[in-house]
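Re-running the complex after MR caught last week's input typo. The corrected sequence lines follow. Everything else is unchanged.
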Amino acid sequence: MKILIIEDEVDLRETIKESLVKEQYVVETAGDYTTAFEKVSIYDYDCILLDIMLPNGNGLDLLEELKKMGKSENVIIISAKNALDDKVRGLALGADDYLTKPFHLAELNARIKAVLRRKNYQGKDLIEAGNMVLDVQERTLTVNNQNVHLNKKEFNILKYFLSNKNRLITKTALAEYVWGDNIDQADNYDFIYYQIKNLRKKLVDSNAEIVLESIYGVGYKLIEK
Amino acid sequence: MKLLNQSLIYLSVAFFFIIGIWSVIFYFNLKDEIRDSIDDGIDNNRLLILMKIDTDSTLLLQNEFGGNNFKINPIPKEKAVTFTDVFKDTMMYRLNENDLEPVRLFRSAFIHKDEYYRITVISSLVEEDDLIEDSFWSVVTLFLILVVSIFIVNNVILKKVWNPFYDILNQLKTYRLDKNEKPIQINSKTKEFLQLQEASNTLINRSKEAYFSQKEFTENASHELQTPIAIIIGKLELLLESQDLKDKDANTIAEVINMTGRLKRLNNSLLLLAKIENKQFLDEEMVSINELSKSFISNYEDLIDFKEIEIKLEENADLKVKINVALAEILISNLIKNSIFHNVENGDINIKITKEEFMICNTGNPTALDPKIIFNRFVKDQAKTQSTGLGLAISNAICSSYQLDLNYDFIQNKHCFKINFKNLFKTD
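Corrected-run output:
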């Protein structure tokens, strides 16, 4: 899988790159409009991460060029602007998703995985791991072809973990993912803990070949057995 | 009151006095004129009678009116010499009217063949009360005709004259700073209206500049702060994943990530507040508050179950309002979220939606909050350190931007927030 990061801020670009390399992707980077334009014209990427404010150009203009080339369907816009019109315009131009800075690396991973799944599974949105299959569209989990019932939040949490296999997800990132961006109350960590506890029990009961490991008490990691 | 009708009222009052004064003066002038001409006629009559006496002395025997308009009575010489002519108004019985009617009377003395006589000539007078009544109704009719014709002239001609004004007014009403609209343009050669157009356009341009510079500032501030925060979070998360960390260090890193998250939320909330106050959320559509409430309740269902809170939604009506969707979502979700997070275990939440109100009550801290300060920025529950203390300030800003009432009440040991959407129903 080949991914292009178009982002002018060096530190952020390198951080994202480091994280994506851990996911075994081939990662290329561009720091300005011209370089980015050259790269997307010559190569094909499975996913493009696109910042809107770029030196010598605007990300949305690049998106327009991509649309002309028929390559805009796997673009994720990464922008500090959450100005509503940019978001709408970006998605109208065919971008697949819009991620507002700042974000957790786990969140970025989940978004990229979603884009890649939609691209590769031809309509079916499935995540497989060991003996289990998570159907994102139908919102069902099967382990050894047996249906396992999950509530809404448990399902979302499991999906998030499966998009970040072997990666540490902090409790903060998890809480934000489960509740959306603007949760600012501490007691929902208890809730997260409770959900994880239930989820673990269901996974053990159904003999799923994955475990949710606690790491330093600051987060969790999904590992295949 | 419309401008046109306002001028009508002023003009009517002015006309009322002008016509009133004029009619009094006119009435007395007319009366004088009539009296003058009657007096002239009587005098003429007397002269004619005196001339006739020379040829027909039987007239001297006419000492009662008896159908004629004069009588002649002999008088002693001494009286005749000192006699002065006199005109006077008096009343006399009239057979046809069976009433006393006003008459003009003239007395004079004359000498005929060395005998002295007094002649009295009368002439009937215009009845004053009839005159007053007739002229009063004429004046009233004149007044009404004037008012009606001014009303018509106002509405037909003046309306046409004022058209450019209403045109400017309408354009200003619908003008949106964010949409890059053309300047206001009217079809008129009237100097005042052109000046108004120019003044409006100058004002619009200035507001536009302020609007865009503020919009740019919020966007830049957002960009400039969000990127470094993104880098901090990313780098710390990578650091957490490195193999040889001590538990204590890992915990410190996690705490910093957590704090950075708070910084991010704080930044987002402040930017949101600035944007609301700068009126950057302008697209409006019909939003069902009932549907919104249901969708947020379902979103927080698991957490509500976890805290074993009992939630009741009472829908007395379908509340639909024209509002920006994003703001409506923030407003309703903030209130519902608060009612969950500031609740106690086994507590309850009651949401009541009526024709024009959304009301949410929840159990929680058993003391009332201070309604004077809870909507201020950075007022927060001391026990909840993670809170930004901006949630209610944002809700309040949203409500004020639509001029809605957001109230807090402590009723039967429950914290109640009530939004009245009445203002959004006014069609004007």
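None of the earlier attempt is carried over here. Residues 3-55 of chain B form the longest helix (53 residues). The longest strand of chain B covers residues 99-112.
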